[in-house]
Amino acid sequence: MRSRVAAVIGWMVAIPVAAVILAVAVSHGGPATNAQSGSLAKRASLPMVACDSCGPTPTPTPTPRPAVKWYTSSHPTARYYYCELDDGWRNLSPTYLREYPSEEALLAEWAGRRVKHPDSKC
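RESULT FIELD:
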């Protein structure tokens, strides 16, 4: 963040300096003739400004999504499975409660016998 602030401040200084140099060049009769080009070029050179953010813009790295646990009941009459953001799994009997690290892991065991609860937040 500090490097971006420094770059912005650098540009805020460089732009007025460039404007002054351009105004001086224009007030001296516009483009220099061949005889004047050497001295005018020295006076009209722009200062070098350090830029930490110059170049290609870096691609932001996607923020990893935290792992969500998945739950179902092993009771023979159970129909649904839930993610940990859902409240429904909290009402399942601890005796039959089954926890899985991913939805894929849950479905590997229960595919065709469990469906995601219609009010699921996941």
